[in-house]
Amino acid sequence: MQVRRTASEDVYDKVKSDILSLSRVPGAEIKINEIAEEMGISRSPVRDALMKLSDEGLVDMLPQRGCWVSLIDLERVDEERFLRHSLEKSVLSYFMEYAKASDISKLQYFVSLQKEALKDGDEGLFFTYDDQMHESIFQSAGKGRIWQIIAKETGHYRRMRILSFDQPGVLDKNIEQHIELIEALKEKDIAAALRIEGEHVFKLTFEAGEIIHDNPSYFKKGSDEIK
């Protein structure tokens, strides 16, 4: 039986997707009336959805003043990256224990889709397939709900990663590291898998300077480095 979605849930998903994809850039105003009119609903479910996004740190709401997409906070980026790294490195050993040959093939399939997206210049699809590859690792390890926590709690880190895609060589390096990680998982080489996963997550540290330089208005004041 399919559960009926509420208007607030629809708004939440739409606005969050726009924020994470940078269709709504950091600092952009969010107009409740426009969303309500566009989606053919009242203002109340829009406010409810934005309050939920505010709780997740993706929206800033000021009474009597308005609502804006939150600026990227590098301290929060660092915390969210720590969360992802801590959980993902722990799940790799579970993947090696439980994964079947078909699970490895699924990871390779997502990489092939990334290559096609890169060839077509579609960064949005590239990121989607990146997410799906990592989610597949968690699902094959029997830890699918953990990935959902990561996806929900890492909005600042995810926006930073999207911005990093404009840096030269980043997308090619992403694919290269995915191929290396899959090979390590296939060979059940946990040391190599952990090393590659760490390099994959922490490479953002070295890209941060150029990202901030190219997009200074997207960042919270006082955010000038990732630790």
How does this structure look, described?
It is built from 11 helices and 2 strands. 70% of the residues lie in helices and 4% in strands. It is mainly alpha-helical. It has helices at 7-20, 32-39, 43-55, 74-98, 101-120, 123-140, 144-153, 155-164, 170-186, 190-202, 204-214, and strands spanning 59-62, 66-69. β1 (59-62) and β2 form a beta hairpin. A two-stranded antiparallel ribbon has the order 1-2.
Topology, please?
Blueprint: H1 7-20, H2 32-39, H3 43-55, E1 59-62, E2 66-69, H4 74-98, H5 101-120, H6 123-140, H7 144-153, H8 155-164, H9 170-186, H10 190-202, H11 204-214
Give a quick precis of the structure.
By secondary structure, the protein is mostly helical. The protein contains eleven helices and two strands. The model has no long low-confidence stretch (mean pLDDT 92).
Mean pLDDT: 92
Q: What percentage of residues falls in helices of 4 or more residues?
A: over 70%
The count of β-strands is: 2
Order of the strands making up the biggest sheet:
1-2
- Element order: H for helix, E for strand: HHHEEHHHHHHHH
Shape: globular
**Biggest sheet, open or closed, and with what strands and sense?**
2 strands, antiparallel
Quote the beta fraction.
under 5%
Radius of gyration, taken over Cα atoms and rounded to an integer in Å: 19 Å
Name its key features.
227 residues; mainly alpha; 2 strands
